[in-house]
Amino acid sequence: MKTFNFSCLILVCSITLGSCGSDKNQEGVSTEPKEKDGATKESITESKAEEKPDVKFLFKSTSDDEMSPAYDVSISINGKTTFLANIVGNVEEIEDIGGKNSIASCGAFWAGAGDYFYAAPSEKGITVYKGWMDEGQETPGYHWEVFKELSK
């Protein structure tokens, strides 16, 4: 009797697991919810991920003097490079300074002041924000302002 109950339990578990693990019914038709155009939510998520632009800041030293470093800062969007500015200091990538929409960011602090950039998606493509900090500033933060609007 114990063997019969155990066998039944295994059979029920096998049937349950087998039917739960597939997104297709017995005829092989997908049971996953579809959007109006017939695309599945998974394919829509994948296509949105593919649309995410490749954005990074590039910087190149323009000074031979270590006592006064300066860098040209550019942004690359899907391989297309646009010059932004020349700033003083040793420019480096910086995480989490542009908020939750920031795709990439960089900046430099030198001799008591700093210049910073971050890129965020916008309706037109990518918006580049420029900010500054000064050790003597009276208001906290980076003082962000829209610097450039670029297409993807």
Textual characterization of the structure:
The chain has a domain at 53-150. Helix content is 20%, strand content 38%. The protein has 152 residues and is α+β, with helices and mostly antiparallel strands. The chain has helices at residues 2-20, 41-51, and strands at residues 55-61, 70-77, 80-88, 92-93, 104-110, 113-121, 126-134, 145-150. The protein has a 5-stranded antiparallel sheet with strand order 4-5-6-7-8, with no helix packed on it. The chain has a 3-stranded antiparallel sheet with strand order 1-2-3, with no helix packed on it. A hairpin with an 8-residue loop joins strand 1 (55-61) and strand 2.
Quick take:
This protein has 152 residues and is α+β, with helices and mostly antiparallel strands. Helices cover 20% and strands 38% of the residues.
**Integer average pLDDT:** 78
Uncertain residue segments: 1-33, 43-49
How far apart the termini lie comes to: 69 Å
Helical/strand content category: alpha+beta
Shape: globular
Name the beta content range. 35-45%
Beta strands, count: 8
- The sequence of SSEs as H and E is HHEEEEEEEE
User: What does the main sheet amount to?
Assistant: 5 strands, antiparallel
